[in-house]
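We treat protein structure as text, and this decision shapes the records that our systems exchange. We quote a single record here, exactly as it is kept in our systems:
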Amino acid sequence: MSAISDQDYIDKILQGDTHLFAVLVDRYKNMIFTLALKMVKNREEAEEVAQDTFIKIYNSLSKFKGDSKFSTWIYRVAYNTCLDRLKKNKKEDVTISIDEFSVHLIKTMDNALNALEDKERKQTIQNCLNSLSNEDNFLLTLFYFEDQSLEEIGKIMNINANNVKVKLFRSRQKLAVILKKQLEPEIIAYYERER
């Protein structure tokens, strides 16, 4: 028996079986909470953002037209909810200087990260992501952890794929600067020699 699709649940919910919304919440609650936590960087606020997101999703369910994947639509609602929360709190983003950046530095960092085990790689990236602004953190999370395409990220952030590519490049520049400071000098020196 195949799993029931999101669209089947949405149709039934819109027809009055509102208790089925709990299934969608269960499917996406971890994803929404994780993304909210990465953006607002506070567990309690992330829980509130996740709750607000699901309330917005429930109230707007009839507006989902199926033009994109349901998960993409949810990401977008969560992203906008996080932005609203951040504006409300007026938290300042950490600014990372990219003056010391070079294209070679990104290539070196990518090579060094590829040498690490996948789990170590993700943990290293996660530690560095927390040093970035909320938007950079969110963008790189979608790219590295959620394996979203440029088109999907564009739909979530309400920008075109070319703008996503530019923002992703700049975010990776900032990440490379942070990674350079965190990775062991021997790893960097090894890959410098391999160049």
